[in-house]
Amino acid sequence: MIDYAETIPNNVDLASDKTLQRALEKWQPAFLNWWNDAGPADSAKLEVYLRTAISVDKDGWANFGYVRMPDYRWGIFLVPRDENRIVSFGDHHGEPAWQEVPGEYRSTLRRIIVTQGDTEPASVEQQRLLGMTAPSLYDLRNLFQVNVEEGRHLWAMVYLLHRYFGRDGREEAEALLERRAGGQDNPRILTAFNEETRHWLAFFMFAFFTDRDGKFQLCSLAESAFDPLSRTCRFMLTEEAHHLFVGESGVARMIQRTCEVMRDNNTDDPAQVRASGAIDLETIQKYLNFHSSVTLDLYGSEISSNAATYYTTGLKGRFEETKLSDDHKLGGDTYPVQEVEGDKIVVRGVPALTAMNTRLRDDYIREIEAGVARWNRIPEQFGMAFRFTLPHVGFHRRIGNFARHHISPAGELMTEPAWNSRKYDWLPDADDDVFIQSLMGRVVEPGKFASWIAPPVRGIKGKPIDFEYVRFN
Ligand SMILES: [Fe+2]
Ligand SMILES: [Fe+2]
């Protein structure tokens, strides 16, 4: 169970390590300052119907109730240790999992943890203003739930830094509160985490695509030989599942609403759909293209010697490593990777160890394909021909084999002028953004929803859809 009697709720027996406890109790007010400064705008007094973990079991989410977010019980929760856990891949395959950080991997592991940790507060900062334009109380509550849990993910990484990395770790933990998404002097580490999330269409797409990248990174770190990292990621994954739900169901509800408007007005004309206060399917597809492509960049280069090192040294495994039935060393294996050769895209077998990023990305793509297929059931049920598609992996990329090439969503190589003349057929332009922004206005009457989104199928934790998920008082 989690000890909520402590200043910092935890299930790691923090009280037995006074030095660590004091260090984290010093970091805690700095975290709250960060939350108040960079977290959800104008939200401190709101009472939000939030879930708080009460144990790390599968159904440890039993506790739902009204909370003012600055009073949220952020803490340190790791799934229990498996005394028999072994390293399941790489050069150390079969050895006992590490309970301390091996000296030779210390700086690499710290970098991995800092990079993951940096994305958590970054997304909260990116979403800071969204609450002002929430399409319903239900959605406002979901946004805040995601935000407090990203805050807790920061705690998860900061615990590891403080507990296992000494003075360097403490300095990194402070720096995590000092960088800012989009900050001029001190931005967040990864590019995709420096863009403001300007509206709810972007938020839902981000939660579907980019939080899912988070899931896959956490899954590969959950395989890590460094057991405390594995255990903390396993608990984070239970929280992440809700973020993915918010994204997928949010987009689905927009599609649902659009299809209703098309049916009621007997039209498939985007201008008429827009005039009726919904978002035309073509525009939703453009945002899908954008968020899908910028998220693929987060997997890094297709071929990466760093990724190979992370694998052979046991720091970062494959998705569901322990369920795979090969030698878990991959010495002589190859993996197919796409690249541009002359005027076409070809597939080449490369050493599997260097293609770890590609492999994780491909596992991720299988999941988003399934999600897009679920979205497509909606126009199908309305008897409409429109279908959403994922763009080719080379479309609109900044990192890896396709950077500096121009590739259409269908996967055709294009010249730069041809790309420039067509890119806004596929990506949102400034006018699209202005239109989406024009739809955004705060809806706070219980049970009411903005014109561009359908209500959810059910409420939170058995509560009705018109439940007062956020109290303004
Ligand atoms: Fe997270
Ligand atoms: Fe998340």
Short structural description:
Helix content is 47%, strand content 7%. The chain is mainly alpha-helical. The model has no long low-confidence stretch (mean pLDDT 96).
Explain what the structure shows.
There is one protein chain. It is built from twelve helices and seven strands. It has 473 residues and is mostly helical. The strands form three sheets. A three-stranded antiparallel beta sheet has the order 2-1-7. Strands 3-4 form a two-stranded antiparallel sheet. A two-stranded antiparallel sheet has the order 5-6. It is globular. The protein has one domain (14-471): Orthogonal Bundle (Ribonucleotide Reductase, subunit A). The protein binds fe (ii) ion (2 copies).
